[in-house]
Amino acid sequence: MTRHTATGALAALAAVAMLTGCAPGDGGQGAPSASAPPVSAPPASAPSGSAPARTPEGTLLVTDFGADTVTFVDPSRWGAAADLGSVRVGTAPYGIALGDDGTAWVATAQGVAAVDTRTRERTALIPYTTDTGPVTTGEYRGGGMGIALSPDGGRVYVGVNVPGGRGTLEVVDTGRRKVTATVPVGRRPFDVDVSRDGRHVYATNHDSFDVTVVDTGDWTTRRIEVAPYGTEGGLGSWLKPHYTAVRPSDGALLLPFEGERLAVVDPGTGRVRIERMTANTHQHGVTAGEDGTLFAVGTGPIDPSEDDGPSLTVRTPDGRERVVPLDGPHEDVALSADGNTAYVSGGFTRDGYWNGLSVVDVGTGEVTRLPVGRRPLGIAVL
Predict the structure, then answer these.
(1) Is residue 352 within 8 Å of 12, Cβ to Cβ?
(2) Which of 192, 239, 263, 332 could bridge to 148 as Cys pair (CB 3.0-4.6 Å)?
């Protein structure tokens, strides 16, 4: 879900495009369904030597995919002052979801970390029941990717990547802090989202060209193929789904592709309608504002001779688009509470990332770069 610049990034993208795309590496398989008890850890906070100051409202939490931490960021400050310190959470943290009680839930390669955002301490690390092989780092590592909370905050849903095989959706009881269910989904679940009524969870599976719809009542599943360019090329294809936004007005799933096509999915019927987009760039992270405005992150061209550079697309509910250029690849995007500012993470999943955020004024399109974190990927706003 709740879900992301460097010199030479575009050249690197072009060099690997036709060889690897966003394809997965090799690895073991396995998805046992039995649950396991949580592993609680001693508090793991920034080495400040004293209790942290009160975390202000509007603080950003970014997952440091290039480290084992989550960094607290005050976007009202600039330079080193914006970094409020980091908390150790687990290897290669990816997605992050924030509860109303102030707990941040972080998908890492080792398990789901719980972080108290008031004290800035990790209070638990809940291991997966899925066998993901050795704990590693990098784009194709096993473990948690997309993550989301149920509307009542009682459950965390995390998409778990199994290198070389199908992924799983693990269900964590937030009170007991243990995995209570494991559901098979597709390959490499980049993103996890929840319907507004909490009755369905949507796992967006990058390497199987689909979304898995999970019924939270009986854990049954349905597969919806989302492949507006077809599935030719298989695991080596670039033209696969990455992230999904749930449209507030009707619950439709919105998945951008290549700055050219927006897949609008009816999760009830499985019907997919395609609308035109204009950014002409490879796209990853996406979110929707309360008014239905869609924000889609362009990471850069597959083919620099034909495609455009990194950008943030701002698409109104009636389909009008404004494309804001960005400096270098980015991954994910989150909005301020008032919807006036977009925060775009520089921690691209492939080579070409940078250690910082682009802060975009939605009204003017003005972009300010804020150096912070270590390959920041997921973003949550307090």
Answers:
(1) yes
(2) 192
> Does the pTM exceed 0.85?
yes
CA distance 71 to 84: 7
Is the Cβ–Cβ distance between 371 and 359 less than 8 Å? Answer: no
Q: Count other Cβ atoms within 10 Å, centred on residue 220.
A: 10
Residue 378: Cβ-neighbour burial (10 angstroms; 0-12, 13-18, 19+): buried
Residues 129/144, Cβ–Cβ less than 8 Å: no
Between CA 321 and CA 295 the distance in angstroms is: 10
DSSP structure string for 55-75: PPTT-EEEEETTTTEEEEE-T
Task: For residue range 214-233, list pLDDT tens digits in order.
Answer: 999 999 999 999 999 999 99
Which pLDDT does position 74 carry in this prediction?
95
Nearest alpha carbon to residue 340 among 284, 381, 370: 381
Give the residue among 333, 379, 283 at the shortest CA–CA distance from 64. Answer: 379
C-alpha span between 134 and 303 (Å, rounded): 34
CA 64 to each of CA 2, 20, 57, 94, 202: distance values in angstroms, whole numbers, following the listed order: 16, 24, 21, 8, 24
Q: How far is CA 368 from the centre of its chain?
A: 22
